[in-house]
Design brief:
6 helices; about 35% helix
Length: about 170
Amino acid sequence: MVSVGKNAAKAPRGQRQAVRILMADDNHDEFLLMSMAAEAIPTPVVFDFVPDGKQLLTELYVPSTIDGLPNVIILDLRMPGFDGMRTLTELAAHPMFWQIPVVVFTSSSRRRDEKMCLEAGAILFENKPNSFSETAAFLERVISVAKPTSQYIGEASHIVPEDRLSQPFRQAG
């Protein structure tokens, strides 16, 4: 996992709390572009980047992340191995993680993909932007759907152990 951004610790009085975003994308350039866009917008953002859906789910299950669950997830649809759709399905089936807003971020323009993702629980389905200004605008839309972790952190005691994960997650690799 790669983390970038301003410190996500409690914001000083009068300052906005940083929005924590967990992003899964196999293209490192997307991470760099998103990090630069975060510096160009007024809302403080802290990114955690992972290269695939399996690592995204692993990050959510790590006990040290329970108090720092993301406010929103950005998920690439097309990744080798554990892709975005499989990840979205796992998130939707989890007793707590289904509450974390997921934005699917993809180069796919197929209406069928959009429909499947929205039906599986994604809150937004967005095509990857073509410019820096479009990336910054996309990030603002992502922030607008972010959810305070206080709305689901009380469910942390119900984390599902790995032996109860669905069969596809245990076998992914």
